[in-house]
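Hi Q.,

Before the meeting this afternoon, I wanted you to have the pyridoxal-5'-phosphate prediction in hand. No need to reply - just skim if you have a minute. The sequence and ligand are here:
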Amino acid sequence: MKHTYQQARYDEPLLIEKGRPGRIGASLPPWDDNRDLSALLPAGMVREDLKLPEISEPEMIRHYVRLSQMNYGTDSGIYPLGSCTMKYNPKVNDRIASHPTLQRMHPLQPEDTVQGVLAMMYELQEALCEIGGMAGCTLQPAAGAAGEFTGLLIARKYHETRGDLKRDEVIVPDSAHGTNPASAVMAGFKIIEIKSAPDGSVDLNALKGALSERTAAFMITNPSTLGIFEKNICEVQQACHDAGALLYYDGANLNALMGKARPGDMGFDIMHYNLHKTFSTPHGGGGPGSGPVAVSCDLVKYLPVPMVVKEGKTFRLDYDRPDSIGKVKGLYGNIGVLVRAWAFVKVLGGTGLKRASELAVLNASYIRSRIESVYPVPFTAPTKHEFVASADFLKEKGGSAKDVAKMLAERGLHPPTNYFPMIVSEALMIEPTESETMEELDLFSDALLDIAKRSAEEYKLAPRTTTVSRVDEIGAAKNLILNWNQFPKEQ
Ligand SMILES: Cc1ncc(COP(=O)(O)O)c(C=O)c1O
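Predicted structure with the ligand bound:
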């Protein structure tokens, strides 16, 4: 039998024996070396001759090892990128996600052949609802920002369904992550930004002044991007609901709260989770990630289709949801990420997740206590999973937060987030996560303390040990080269 492109792509996985998920292969047609697939490719894209490079195994291994060593990841060392929660990705997650049954699964297989995956997704939905104190959850959105967008579409649908058509504004505090206003604009809202109170919390008067019959939602991150728990959350909740607005929880900082406090119990109506942060799954350079959205009871009917539902002992994808906002991602969502997050929850259990949050807070507080006398922390409330220190004092000798980052990179340590949130001058936003040992926390703190003593001349030379040294950022911004053809010949 000749394969066609269509068959190779869609039919093969469907040949799984019914009721025996994962048993692929037995009924596949034999591989045909002589088949001609070239006719399926556009003319001009078929190679006339095939010259593969002739290299030895050691040469190839060395090439790839060298490339991998140019990279820095959570397997290399501390990765204290505040707000991004770059925690170690346990290898057991990868082992489970690379199981042949999952690897060979196809998203268009009949539901009765993918019961295991649907069960896993269902369990993850349930676990996330439990952790967040929410009533229903979708696993589809592909990142935190995609979750925000989905959540805001739900908010819009909620108001529209009630005939409350004036609500076209979303309020965000000035410490918000940039994706919050961006997602709100994409969902069709206008942004009202409010200033934070001097201690970094939500300014209740400013919030009450901004709330009106036009407010659709107030979006906040708790703990905030300053790593501070919102002490007025009950009043914030009351004010928003009194004004008929919904309360949106940006779950990027959930790593501080798991098992300790739940957004649902604080009165939040909609939240997203960044699985690629809190639940130890890879970030993959900004994606693919996963940003499930959970909602309170009244909003469950608006969640995207399909939902994974359980009927007796069977799981299925439910598309029959007339009030749903529709589909926000193809097929199952980022299944490779979902499986890893599920594994993390299963391995740690409730007690382990709670312990992870406790350690994340402890580790951040420890680094703060080690460096605060040198790098001031302008917002002084107790630290949760992260804190924001300032390198402003370095300006006097010609240094900056950027120089601290470059010096850290020179020492083989990943820098913290810099220049965010913007309400702290020369911000260094430090989030070590629960994964680091005391030795690693000390190594990082010692490096920061030592860097503060260095001269401006030394700063400008760093980083000298990295694959790419200090780049001409202004030159790069002013003279954009967007096509490899434009590179000067000598490069
Ligand atoms: C506070 C906060 N909100 C939202 C996001 C957006 O999440 P994602 O990168 O998953 O789109 C981030 C990302 O770092 C964040 O820190």
